[in-house]
Amino acid sequence: MSYRAEKPEFENLVDRSEPVRRLATGFHFTEGPIWHPKEHYLLFSDMPGDVRRRWDEKDGVREMRRPANKCNGMTYDAALNLIVCEHSTSCLIRETPAGGREILASHFEGKELNSPNDVCVRADGSIYFSDPWYGRMPVYGRERERVLGWQGVFRVAPDGTLSLVVPRDDFAMPNGLCFSPDEKRLYVNDSERHLIRVYDVAPDGTLRGGRLFAEGISSQQEAGVPDGMKCDEQGNVWCTGPGGVWVFSPRAQLLGRIVAPEKVANLHWGGADFHTLFLTASTSIYGIRTRIGPRIEPFMRARQAA
After folding, report:
1. Which of 15, 12, 10 is nearest to 288 (CA)?
2. I need a surface site. Which of 43, 99, 273, 299 has the fewest CB within 10 A?
3. CB 187 within 8 A of CB 237
4. Measured between alpha carbons, how far is 286 from 295 in angstroms, rounded to an integer?
5. Phi, psi at residue 234, to the nearest 5°?
6. pTM of this prediction exceeds 0.85
7. What gap in Å lies between CA 283 and CA 239, rounded to an integer?
8. pLDDT band at 304 (very low <50, low <70, confident <90, very high)
9. How far, in Å, CA of 178 to CA of 248, rounded?
10. Domains of the chain, first to last
């Protein structure tokens, strides 16, 4: 794995002499990484294998759930309930630490969702998720007919109300999404159109002023598309792309790239100080120490009370 700096600011984000560790391998296609802030383990999904696993420094990899409804993106809410995008069921669900399961979203306007893909939580407790149709394809989901007819981005309000928050034709395949540190912006990428769009977040959680943030995230020489995406504490946008991970400034300047030996599908910061960037990359998971940490998500504050 190597680093390609496009701007001097990239040196403030990563130490290019820092070794990259392959933490585990032998999987089908890893996705959905999320770090537990109290128990200090990485949870991740393997859609083709239909299994959810965890990794930690002491015990390595352990299987947590099989079958797992070909789950994809995952996150925690402030109470450390696990929010999961399920491809096989076309549902967004919440799992309690005690093992309870609640369906948060399954239909919109009476029609079944495509397949919730990635998810993030706002400080007010509302949940935003993308809904492309990858989960209705073979291998990554359960092959079946599409009924919704378009691919959107949705919000589940704290009272459970589901709403569409972007115009229906804004995306061909909406995928990764993340908030800026102040939650005044929501970034959403499009795997098919190879771009990132950004929206202003109103106080009531609605989105306004959608516009292009970055485009041309594609290559004929290197594998990878915009998929998983996170903001760091300074508002830089880290997005998977050809060759590995592309890092953009808040002004959409490409600062640099992390080049991985496998196609990277998603990323998430973790570790005791949240300065380890975990990559789920096809058959393996990797860990990289970074000079910068993530945008502090609501669930990350739980470590302060640990």
Report:
1. 15
2. 99
3. yes
4. 20
5. -95, 0
6. yes
7. 19
8. low
9. 13
10. 2-305 (2.120.10.30)
| Token pair belonging to 2 | 């190597």
Query: Considering only CA atoms, which of 214, 266, 292, 200 is closest in space to residue 47?
Result: 266
SS3 298: helix
265 with 31: CB under 8 angstroms?
yes
DSSP 23-41: EEE--S-EEEEEE-TTT--
- 302 Cβ contact partners less than 8 Å away, ≥ 6 residues apart: 37, 38, 76, 78, 80
Q: Tell me, what amino acid is at 183? A: E
User: Which among 107, 111, 80 is positioned nearest to 96, based on CA atoms?
Assistant: 80
Give the C-alpha separation, 105 to 116, whole Å. 9
CB 117 within 8 A of CB 132: yes
Query: Contact at 8 Å (CB) between 55 and 23?
Result: yes
Report the C-alpha gap between 305 and 118 in whole angstroms: 27
Cα–Cα distance measured from residue 176 to residue 183, given in angstroms and rounded to the nearest whole number: 16
pLDDT digits (tens, 9 = 90+) for 31-73: 999 999 999 999 999 999 999 999 999 999 999 999 999 999 9
Single-letter code of the amino acid located at 262: E
